[in-house]
Amino acid sequence: MRARGPLPQLGGGTFITDGGMETSLIFHAGFDLPLFASFVLLEDESGRRALREYLDHFVRIAREHDVGLVLDTPTWRASADWGAQLGYTAEALADVNRNGVAFVERVRADAGDGMTIVLSGAIGPRRDAYLADDRMSADEAEGYHHAQLATLADTPVDLATAYTLTNASEAIGIVRAAKRVGLPVAIAFTVETDGRLPDGQPLREAIDEVDAATDRGAAYFLINCAHPSHFANVLPALGATGERIHGLRANASAKSHAELDESETLDDGDPEELAADYASVRRWLPSLNVVGGCCGTDHRHVAALVDAWLDAA
Fold first, then answer.
1. CATH superfamily label, 12-238+246-311
2. Do the beta carbons of residue 48 and residue 42 sit within 8 Å?
3. Which pTM value belongs to this model?
4. Cα distance between residue 60 and residue 69, in whole Å
């Protein structure tokens, strides 16, 4: 196991992330990403150039605002079932994950000294990020996610972040698998318009369940892939559980997941309104210091929200 120091974002200060990587690359850069898999862009020069141009926006924002940056690999879909659908063997997927880390390593190196950049290995759910039917047990999830996490653990990433999770069982399995390979992991739940996970569980209960089953094994939690209007009403009920949420990566659109799934155009909302929404939920999330975007957001949204975030500090 690689030796890793404390995660800088747990020591305080403001950190940003990128925005909606896949939606930006599809709708703004014009790429066809099969199954929403951005890792396919690592295969050729034009794809790598587009990824680099996308990520460099956020490096500049972090530098200009003197904040930290959590930089994700383009590997959200780089796990066994999704890779198999795209024709990747287990060995090829391991290479994809290693190449994804090497890519963001170069971005961090080129940023130079004077910036705090945390490398995060992005992973995603085994099944659709908007559906919670046919749930796995925690043991099944641990077995499924182990391969990707083991590969990431043998690279210089500082942590893994599991995005768009729809239920506590899969999250528990991911945390257990990450602990086995010695890799810190953050857990990001998505919620529906009622503030509950897609399987109907309240957010507070899901976080508490994961913590109880893993001895608080997750480094921290995030909310992602939902608009603030979908979950703002449940935040006051979080109580002390809210202290476990360090990250927020919201969608630009207030549409439901079902509506977004059926949309053929990008709803990128209003960056200033989204930024105001971030500032308004701050009082309910005392540990929140990692802020960025998800579907429909890009560098404009992240620049606006970090402005509002720092102004509200």
1. Homocysteine-binding-like domain (3.20.20.330)
2. yes
3. 0.97
4. 10
